[in-house]
Amino acid sequence: MFSRRGIKYAKRSLFFLLGILFFFLLSFLFTDSGRKRLEGGGGEGGGNGGGDGGVQEIKQLESDLAPPYEGPSHPTNTRLNTNVHIFYYGWYGTPAVDGEWVHWNHRYLENWDTSDKKVYPTGDHQPPEDIGANFYPSLGPYSSRNETVIEQHFKWISDANIGVISVSWYPPGLSDENGPKSDELIPTLLRIAQKYNLKVCLHVEPYKERSAENLRKNLQYVYDTYSIHPAYYTIRELNMALCISSSEWSRLFSRKGDLTVRETELDGIFIALLVEMKHRYDIKKSSFDGFYTYFASNGFTYGSTWKNWKGLADYAMKNSLIFLPSVGPGYLDTRVRPWNSRNTRLRRNGLYYEIAWRAALQTSARYISITSFNEWHEGTQIEPCIPYSSGNYTYSSYSPHKPDNYLQITRNFTFYPSINKS
Fold first, then answer.
1. Helix (H, G, I), strand (E, B) or coil at 378
2. Among residues 64, 168, 397, 408, which one has the fewest Cβ atoms lying within 10 Å of its Cβ?
3. pTM for the complete prediction?
């Protein structure tokens, strides 16, 4: 799979900038077509509304899906599975550590559908009782800079046999409109990750005035600053990044591009976000090495629709591309987008997550990403949560299961033989 540049650059460090996917993922959502897709909930591939997310449809095909892993429940003497990657957000803050609440006080977002005349909540949430999430973390609203919290997070992740953490990242000096400067956190994350045999890669967010030119400069910065750290993700000593297809990026990823990284120290495996069916052709034309799906909401896009994964995997194999499906436990974001209930995907006591995993494993995919460890705003987290009420509001929880239910489900699948190979 990595033979094209694997021999020549056998001593190069790997860039696995998984978050470049979100860098472009969010830019897609900010376009008119992206807003319509978010509001409509279906798009290519269809959606089922009402939070069903296609569970009934997939259940009818359950006999064709990969069976659960039936090997030892706790294999010993094995390294963590670096073929499984999980999205991680280090943008939360508290007054005690950061001087103010950060992200937990996320405001209610304005409805993009101007034809919807319903009245929805507005303003900021007021932590610690009232947070911008439908679930309440078992650690309480925490600071991402609290090293005790990071230690606990990384222990949970390693116990689930997840090998790579994809950290939301902005270039030095930049941040999202609500959060702190993320690059300052990376050295701490690398240091703690090393203790747990975890690897860290960067998830590049949509920074201002992004372009092929400054993306190349930022790839160089990451290479120079982090690639020699033992906890920075490497695989067969190649460089790897995930991004969305665009003619702008062919300047970087085509060997004929004026800014090409091919056959340089920044060369590697570059994987594009596939949203619509037609992106398959764009991705190949733009000289990417494969594609992934990101969204945890079945039916939200063509790429995130489970029933399309086998066809996408077959296309990837026929065209010598890598397919990396993204699985998630559900989707629930009405504490920040109260008008977006049509895109809710209920967890169904873990059934939704299990079927997503089994659909992914039924394909020929060798890598799987998980959306997410702690994206609390969109309710895609597998981090433990607890039952909690504040005033008239009762948060969703994993009941009747334990707070770590989704970590346990994850562990059951990360030992699956087809994705647990070096």
1. helix
2. 64
3. 0.84
